[in-house]
Design a protein that fits this description.
This protein has 274 residues and is α/β, with parallel strands linked by helices. It has one domain (9-153, 198-254): Vaccinia Virus protein VP39 (Rossmann fold). The chain contains 9 helices and 11 strands. Helix 2 (20-34) packs antiparallel against helix 7 and helix 5 crosses helix 6 (201-211).
């Protein structure tokens, strides 16, 4: 299957270092939300070039598997694995199709499922529900957690709001569910142009509950101490006031089984307000 990500592998791979917010806000906040994965089996949906899959494996995951619909991304990730030998597995599959959660060695195999900027690429409610269903089907029968970085349903429609962080987001100001938008990001000398779709907080939660998740929380991103020191508080003010992304932490199963081991989030809210 062709993907809009097939031609942006190098830009995606280098964006973690080229775009300060990815390292000091996105990765810092997301990995804090995921918490301790030592000894856990983790599935990374929409893994791209394997940026987070490799980190999760290096953080002690007993098994780390990356799934992406982009053959080019998966091939790149597999070549890195051949060189580095971290023990990460990759497969090309469309996670929006619930059948992806039923694949051999995927179904019922994972304690934690992660996804960074995957749900915003659901072009329909069916696809949004499909991503969530895949995450649920991949989890153990006893339950698990789905931690996903998603587009903030209330991101700023001011075209310059995120320009200082290397990107422009454009979309209708008051969109209907699934209204398309566009992201342009500058990664060193390269430009990323990606289409996304806007979904409300309610739409996300409905899709998660339809998949079987029964406890859902929203986490606002924060900045690492290194990022605050290096760039100053003023640099991050716009982003923290209205971040372009939030984190969903969805649980299913008995709470005793789910012991998330997640480090405490610095700033959480039940709904994704600005």
């Amino acid at each position: 299957m062709e993907s809009q990500f097939d031609t942006v592998v190098s830009a995606y791979e280098s964006s973690m270092e080229e775009m300060p917010f990815r390292k000091h806000v996105e990765a810092y906040s997301f990995l804090n939300a995921v918490g301790d994965v030592a000894g856990r089996n983790v599935l990374d949906l929409g893994c791209g070039s394997g940026l987070y899959t490799r980190r999760l494996r290096s953080a002690g995951a007993a098994r780390a598997v990356g799934m992406d619909e982009s053959a080019a991304m998966v091939e790149h990730a597999q070549r890195r694995e051949e060189r580095e030998g971290l023990g990460v597995e990759y497969l090309a599959a469309n996670a929006a199709d619930p059948a992806a959660g039923d694949l051999p060695d995927i179904a019922g195999s994972f304690d934690v499922v992660t996804a960074v900027y995957v749900l915003p690429y659901a072009s329909s409610r069916k696809a949004l529900e499909g991503f969530c269903a895949t995450a649920r089907r991949a989890m153990r029968a006893t339950g698990g957690r789905f931690v996903a970085a998603v587009l903030n349903p209330e991101f700023s429609t001011d075209p310059q709001w995120y320009r200082g962080y290397g990107m422009l987001l454009s979309s209708q100001e008051s969109p209907a569910e699934g209204t398309p938008g566009h992201l342009r990001a500058w990664v060193g000398p390269e430009v990323l142009d990606l289409d996304f779709f806007r979904w409300s907080a309610a739409a996300h939660e409905e899709a998660l509950r339809a998949a079987g998740f029964d406890r859902i929380s929203w986490i606002r991103p924060t900045v690492s101490d290194e990022g605050r020191t290096r760039y100053g508080e003023a640099f991050w003010a716009n982003y923290l006031d209205c971040p372009h992304a939030l984190i969903i932490d969805a649980h299913v199963g008995p709470e005793a089984v789910l012991d998330s081991r997640a480090r405490p989030a610095e700033d959480t809210s039940a709904t994704p307000h600005q």
